[in-house]
Amino acid sequence: MPILPKNVSDQVREMFTGLKxxxxxxxxxxxxxSELHTLLDEVQALSDSVRYRRASASQASEFxxxxxxxxxxxxxGPHGYSRARFVGAPAGHEFGVxxxxxxxxxxxxxxxxxxxxxxxxxxxxxxHLQVFTTPT
Length: 136
Prior knowledge:
Elements: H1 6-15, E1 23-29, H2 35-44, E2 50-56, E3 72-77, E4 80-87, H3 93-107, H4 114-121
Parallel strand pairs: 1-2
Antiparallel strand pairs: 1-3, 3-4
């Protein structure tokens, strides 16, 4: 039974017509069947430019992930893996963020103001930034 309603699948398929380069979604988890696996299978089916595969928990560090924070999704584009990661299932509002991130990785787009980009270029140390979302 599909997770995505037909109207959502149709909207995402239409959005994916804007994909420039292929994107790979890597689900890092324990390998068991889950709704997250099913969801990513459905997302992959919406465009030939989106590929999905699974990696084992022992491979988490290869994708910049912590084994204690699995399941998680890494996004790969034409120049390697993005530093954006999803921990847990991208459900609710997070699903829209996942779709937008797929588009951004494909188009190599970073939507920041020029002032913010200049500020970030001036940083001399690594910064670890986490964004948490919760259903409302």
